[in-house]
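FAQ: What does the model actually see?

It sees only this:
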Amino acid sequence: MNRPVQQRIVAAVVLVPTAALAITTLVVAYFCRRLVDEATQVDLDLPSLSPLLWSVLGFCVVCSLVIVVRGLRFSHHVAGPAYRLCKSLERIRSGDVAFRVKLREGDFLGEVADEMNLLIESMQPERTEVRPGEPAQPVVEPVEAELEGAGAPRS
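And it is asked to produce this:
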């Protein structure tokens, strides 16, 4: 897995929503504190204010956790396939085209993997049809026999 890519994805997906929730929590806490101060000045009791503040804080914490978990899962389903695709390209550059790119269930970039598999198939040498138990015949022999039968000089 390509950790730097995964970390960049998590940062891009998780940081902004989590920062927004943190700022929202601070703003709510600030106004709740001002409300408590104002209520104290006029000797007023606000018993439902504390549960309200705690429920907002709890909501923000739960949402932050959900965002982090979903962000990690998302990055895992993008960075992993991207890594496998890059490794497959390295194999192709080295001349190895006897493989298929396989991704996990639920991974993103499946369309790219499918296209890469089509590319790999197009790069593979032509194969003759071989029946089970028979040795493979090279393609050149039938062509030479056909040329000889037509009276063409043999090279």
